[in-house]
Amino acid sequence: MFDSIYSSTVTVSQFFAMAGAALAAGFLYAWLMSYRIRAAKRFFLVTALIPFIVAAVITFVNGNIGAGVAIGGAFSLIRFRSAQGTSDEIAAILIAMGAGIAFGMGYLGYGVVILLCLSVLYWLLSLLPLFEHRSLARDQLLRITIPESLAYHDAFADTFAHYLTECESVGVKTTGMGSMFRLSFRIRMKDAAEEKAFIDELRTKNGNLEIAITPYADAQNTL
């Protein structure tokens, strides 16, 4: 079961055995991960197909260095055409690709073990209170849109001092074709009940433009 099914040359029956195992394990893996990752249906469909896609590539390359370099270049182009995902999505894709390599080398048993064991392990670890520091859980990401004419360096200093215990600037970028700026801050409120009053006071200073407050841990990948 854990020996490679491939011989010196890959036969049609060996290829279809690999395809069946990779697709079946891939869809079961995607179904298990769908209970722990918040993502669109299309993400899980693609994740289910990745083990077979990677396995097919590995099978066709089969020691050909030139083909391997060409495939690597094609994958790098796909990477730069793709939007950055969450850490959960990246982990799911990496696991699927790792299993795909095992399938592509003919080790069907190892590919199934990688997919199913790591999906169960990921599910169990997500249930445990690991790495959940309560002090860090209170951090939030504040985004303030301001007009181009506003000098933003100290524009909100007094408001921040009144409502926040911590405030750190984490980014500035232009928006609205350069007519506005979007400021990002990692903040910690003195009193969560004062959030509305905090936003209302900021609105009086930014011309009533968009203001958003979200959990910092969930929003880091969108900075």
Keywords:
223 residues, Alpha-Beta Plaits, 9 helices
What's a concise summary of this model?
By secondary structure, the protein is α+β, with helices and mostly antiparallel strands. It has helices at 12-33, 41-61, 65-80, 87-104, 108-127, 134-137, 157-163, 195-203, 216-219, and strands at residues 140-147, 164-175, 180-189, 211-215. The radius of gyration is 24 Å and the shape is elongated.
Structural write-up:
With 223 residues, the chain is an alpha+beta fold. It folds into two domains: 12-127, no CATH class; 134-222, Alpha-Beta Plaits (2-Layer Sandwich), CATH 3.30.70.260. 54% of the residues lie in helices and 16% in strands. It has helices at 12-33, 41-61, 65-80, 87-104, 108-127, 134-137, 157-163, 195-203, 216-219, and strands at 140-147, 164-175, 180-189, 211-215. It has a four-stranded antiparallel β-sheet with strand order 2-3-1-4. Strand 2 (164-175) and strand 3 (180-189) form a beta hairpin. Helix 1 (12-33) packs antiparallel against helix 4. The longest helix is centred in the first third of the chain and has 22 residues, at 12-33. It starts with 11 loop residues before the first helix and ends with a helix.
Radius of gyration: 24 Å
Distance between the termini: 46 Å
Q: What order do the helices and strands follow?
A: HHHHHHEHEEHEH
- In terms of structural class, how would the helical and strand content be classed? alpha+beta
Number of helices: 9
The main sheet comes to: 4 strands, antiparallel
Average residue pLDDT: 81
Strand share of the residues? 15-25%
Percent range for helical residues?
40-55%
Number of strands: 4
Number of domains: 2
Anisotropy-based shape: elongated
Low-confidence segments, given as residue ranges, are none
**Lateral strand order in the biggest sheet:** 2-3-1-4
